[in-house]
Structure formats: structure tokens, C-alpha cells
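Page 37, continued from 36.
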């Protein structure tokens, strides 16, 4: 299975509302519950109306479109990273899963997954 590097810095945020979120950005993940409005976006796109933010995240995605019948892919990846004391922030979309790690753990996470048999693809120039 392939893991693709995403060459941007990300921020995990709470926002007052979504009115200032740049939904046309290449990456913008929003989530709303009865308790909060969350946003994960490229750090350069963090809106002015954040109420809390945590910068310093990097991301990779599981390449391809994952069929809903596939079981345990994210669990396996998160388990491998947990065994190596690497925390994650996971986001699932209709097509696939995205995994964020803190910037200081990013290359180590990719190295660990590479040793576990995952093929790492994408440019290394911005790591």
C-alpha cells in the first residue's frame, strides 16, 4: 500500500464559525458537532476567527480510493505509529484517510511505515 507525503504545514483549529474558512484551498477539513466547530487546514490558510489553534502538523494520505469494505487500514497504521510513540490526528474522507503527525515526528513516522512495508511516495524536498 502507498503512503503519499503532503508537502504543506497544517494547523488544527477551533473556529467561531466557518464564514472566513477558505473552502477553495487545496486542503480544508471541517467538522461540526453540538460542542464545537473544527477546522484542519494549511497553516497559511488559518482564518482570523480561530478561537484555538495548534500549529506544526504535517500530513500524509493513504493513496487510492479505499473501498468501504476494507477493514483495519487506519487501525494498522495508527497501531504501528503508536508502537513507536508517534501520536496522530486522523481524518477520513469519502475516498481515503489522512494522517497528521507533529512536524518533529513526521519523517520518523514515514521511516517507520516504510520499514513496515508501506511504499512512501512524493517529494522529500519540503520535509
Amino acid at each position: 500500500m502507498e503512503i503519499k507525503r503532503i508537502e504543506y504545514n497544517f494547523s488544527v483549529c477551533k473556529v467561531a464559525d466557518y464564514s472566513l474558512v477558505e473552502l477553495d484551498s487545496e486542503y480544508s477539513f471541517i467538522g461540526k458537532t453540538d460542542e464545537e466547530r473544527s477546522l484542519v487546514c494549511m497553516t497559511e490558510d488559518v482564518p482570523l476567527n480561530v478561537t484555538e489553534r495548534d500549529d506544526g502538523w504535517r500530513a500524509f494520505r493513504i493513496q487510492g480510493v479505499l473501498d468501504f469494505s476494507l477493514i483495519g487500514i487506519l487501525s494498522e497504521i495508527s497501531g504501528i505509529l503508536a508502537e513507536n510513540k508517534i501520536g496522530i490526528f486522523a481524518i477520513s474522507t469519502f475516498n481515503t484517510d489522512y494522517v497528521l503527525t507533529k512536524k518533529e515526528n513526521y519523517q520518523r513516522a514515514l521511516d517507520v511505515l516504510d520499514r513496515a512495508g508501506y511504499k512512501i511516495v512524493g517529494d522529500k524536498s519540503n520535509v
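The chain is about 20% helix and 40% strand. Flag for discussion at group meeting. The mean pLDDT is 90.
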